[in-house]
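Preliminary data (for renewal application), pyridoxal-5'-phosphate complex.
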Amino acid sequence: MLNENPLPPLPSVAAEVARRANDLNRYPEFYPEYLKKVIAEWLGAPQDRVAVGSGSVGVALQALQACVRPGGKIVYGWRNFDAYPLLADMTGARSAQVPLLPGGRQDLEAMAKESVDADAVIVCNPHNPTGNLLAASELREFISLVPSDTLIVLDEAYIEFVSEDVRPDSLAWPWEFPNLLVLRTFSKAYGLAGMRVGYGVSSPELAARTNRFQLPFAISNLSVAAVEASLRAENELNARVRHLTVERDRLAHGLRAGGWRVLPSDTNFLWFDEPSRVEELAALLIGAGVEARCYPGEGARLTVGDTVSNDAVLGALGA
Ligand SMILES: Cc1ncc(COP(=O)(O)O)c(C=O)c1O
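Predicted structure:
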């Protein structure tokens, strides 16, 4: 039901975490400077442009705390990732939710208009829960339309599942747009959801403001070890991502053959664009022993599972 990677940690990652378990009596670094250095070197970015936090949702909260005034306005498309309204509440802001366009597209034109008097705007690309991908050109145009004193959070939690030929080169954009924070995570493609490490890339000024809201001691030594071991095993992890995208496309194909309207997806999940069949769908999936995230009257999101679960879904819903 949550958008997790169905594959267990790589043995090399699990072994490194287990090895570090002997140090649990020790505090981690006060602020995670070492982890920032590791991530910055991996990205080939200056360290002063990187912020890290407890998952990418933690980095988003830090940036919003830094940039949103109490009573200020945060704009985002809706439906969207469940945490956005909670982040708005936590920062004492009001949410301006802009309805999605058909096909799960975020309405960038309407969002740009709404952002004129907003403190922050959040774009999710690719989008949760529909899997829709906004093209680099339209995103860049949107970013250039947002006032330069409005924080733009570009949430790319699923970006590694986007095929490289259409993946936006968004990590380069903060050099041009000092109000842009590009958010990424080790939770999805890297399979470390339980370790809670996300990062953001932005201008040095925005990174510094975001890092000022970093909770001391918040990133554990085990999490740092898991990230380092994962970066050493990047080729294996990339192969897993390719496997999941092949499974995603197999599932989508089989479900469409079974008569279901399934949107194209650039993530590790699929969206059933079936507002009037959600209950029927939920019953069939429960019968197959599979949980999906159902939104009555809207549709349902199914996370790509391991091959056995995907076969079970296709057995129940396929042609
Ligand atoms: C769009 C989006 N952003 C962020 C997150 C949170 O990821 P993290 O584990 O890095 O906090 C999720 C998790 O489901 C998500 O769907």
